[in-house]
Amino acid sequence: MHSTIILGLCTFVSAVFAAPLEFPLPDGFPKPSPSQLASIQKQAGGTLPNGPLPTSLKTAAIITLQLLANNELFEVAFFNELLNNVTSNAPGYDVTALHPPLDRAYTLKAITAIAKQEEIHSIGANAILASVGQSPIAPCKYTFPATTFSEAILFAETFTDIALGTVPAVQAIFATDGGSEVGFVPLLGSILAQEGEQTGYFRYLQGKTPSAAPYLTGGTASFAFSALQLFIVPGSCPKPLSSIDLPTFKPLTVLTKPEAKNMTLEFSVVGPVDKKSNSIVYLSGQNFPVTEPIFDVVTRGGATHFKACFPFDLGFANGLTIAALVNGTGKFFTDEGVASATIYGPGLILVD
After folding, report:
1. Residue 43, burial from CB neighbour count under 10 angstroms (0-12, 13-18, 19+)
2. DSSP type of residue 232
3. What distance in Å separates the CA atoms of residue 95 and residue 229, rounded to the nearest whole number?
4. Nearest residue to 104 (alpha-carbon basis) of 92, 79, 87
5. 329: left (phi over 0), alpha (psi -120 to 50) or beta
6. Is 266 helix (H, G, I), strand (E, B) or coil?
7. In whole angstroms, how far apart are CA 58 and each of 30, 31, 241, 263, 336?
8. What is the pLDDT of residues 141-175, one digit of tens each?
9. Of 29, 179, 174, 147, residue with least CA distance to 82
10. pLDDT, tens only, 77-132
């Protein structure tokens, strides 16, 4: 079984929604009243943490929290639109589109819980930002590459895998920068576990094993930030994304449908590429990054196309693999080292 969804394609179709999602939501999100918050928490299956909030955070912690808050809002929008589509039997989302043995009532219950859990995550992240004197992150307008329930679930698996790789990197920042944010490492761990439960559900719906691999692929804040922006309508954010001090890489499109085997992949970018000074680097599982030379570099249709080997049998993991086109052709030993050299990416590859 194999599947792929590539973050970086400007040719992604926009989802067909039952109705455009508007904020605030009917439940009051992102600023619910006390009674509305109580209802959200009940549907989510739990409450916001009741511990004290910090009064100061280090700069790196603030930047990563701004990323997390933006990502949570993106997920809130996606899952609420998915919920609307299933509830209204939108084309591609009616009961015939759902995977047996799950029935419509169970599917609605599951997606409702996930949507409300993401709302709680978002409210919590913004509360921390506000407590240290930072402006809360407000919703943008989003577009999603799904027109059916099956496409939506594949997309949900993909962006959840990005979160599963990013949150440990955020934990490392919180644990080592010497600020009061070290106390939030366990909190992030609980979010990490919750996201893992979600992706197991998404994989099950596709007939995959609930867990992809013994060790999942990592990532960096900059890769997550770049991927997120591909689904935000330009200029739609109340607070410009440029105000977040993270790099944004140019898109890397994976043109070949990957499989769980050694093969050649074709990529494209909008911009120059030099096979002598650029290479493709893969992040997969918890192994060292793998550098592959690029070849067959040609320009057509306003884009630069090139190829690189995809050495899956070298020890790549099922599930997510991250590809990046970097400056340099040597070895890399950390995800952050790859991100520091990246000029195009991430190309996201899912194989099982």
Report:
1. middle
2. B
3. 32
4. 87
5. alpha
6. strand
7. 25, 26, 20, 44, 19
8. 999 999 999 999 999 999 999 999 999 999 999 99
9. 147
10. 999 999 999 999 999 998 777 766 678 899 999 999 999 999 999 999 999 999 99
